[in-house]
From TrEMBL:
Documented EC number(s): 4.2.3.4
Organism lineage: Archaea, Thermoproteota, Thermoprotei, Thermoproteales, Thermoproteaceae
Keyword vocabulary terms for this entry: Cobalt, Lyase, Metal-binding, NAD, Nucleotide-binding, Zinc
This protein's name: 3-dehydroquinate synthase
The organism's place on the tree of life at top rank: Archaea
A single Gene Ontology CC term: cytoplasm
Domain (3-dehydroquinate synthase N-terminal) ranges: 43-153
Any GO MF annotation of the entry: 3-dehydroquinate synthase activity
GO biological process: aromatic amino acid family biosynthetic process; chorismate biosynthetic process
Top enzyme category: lyase
Amino acid sequence: MIGRLERSVDAVVDAAGRLGVGDRRFPFMARSLSGVFRGSATLVDDGENAKKLETALFIVEELLRLGADRWDALIAIGGGSLLDTAGFAASIYKRGVDYVNVPTTLLAMVDASIGGKTGVDHGRVKNVIGSFHQPRLVLIDPSLAEALDARNYASGLAEVVKYGITLDAGLFSFLESSAPLLLSRSREALWRVVARSAELKARVVEEDEREEAGRRVVLNFGHTVGHAVEGASNFSLTHGEAVAVGMKCELEMGVKLGVTDPAALERYLALCRSLGLCGEPRVNPSAAAELVFADKKRRGGFISIPLVKSVGSWELAELGVDEVRREVIRCLSTR
């Protein structure tokens, strides 16, 4: 859904602050958006198949139809694909208008809604058209994730695992010990992992907003291979399912290079199985390997890939594109 604010973004931020939510840039405002909208909302398809330039231009047309000016704000309510697309539309409409993200899936809560990376896919290439455009506000109600189907719920947990294995050993240990609670959708456990994931991502983005200082690249762990797998599946795999495969392959690369402690790979595989993320991706390994060349982190014949050293720590590696392609084929052929 796309709508316009009844009140200014600053007024909504102030209201969130009065709820005692702490950090004003990424507040958690529970349940109610009453009084926020005016005018008619617009329904927009969600999902990866709708994450394309045509959808972004449809949103622009709707903004024109509604008479939105540069002082209005766009509100996007939905999953990660919709938030990425709506954010991109906001970034190009009249050279940029404010927008607010209201994520309704677990994956969007912990990843897509935060950080200002907006964009759409083109063909089988993920996020190849896009911009950096920060939301003025992110409203997260983790209880919305309780209504997700099992597949999309597990998909969101993959991104939580990513934060733990790269940045926070304590979070990873909590996931290991609390997998049954999370799968049963314990509200306390769910809110804890959503809050910690959002905090970790926000901290990294603050340090390296436009991915220029070599810090934000850690958020791409599992995504070099994951995006290739997702594209090779023609987006029949969810983003989280593809990233789960990507993390396994990139951990195996790290072990082979002597960067990754083999124990980190073993712990990841055990957690992956506990959370139901270790399915067999039915993708052509060669097709996935070919898509590696489109990775946004590629410079010439090399790709910058964050590799895990041990649970909670990482380092950046520059790997040859051909080497990565060979490893993708090997990994996907031996699952």
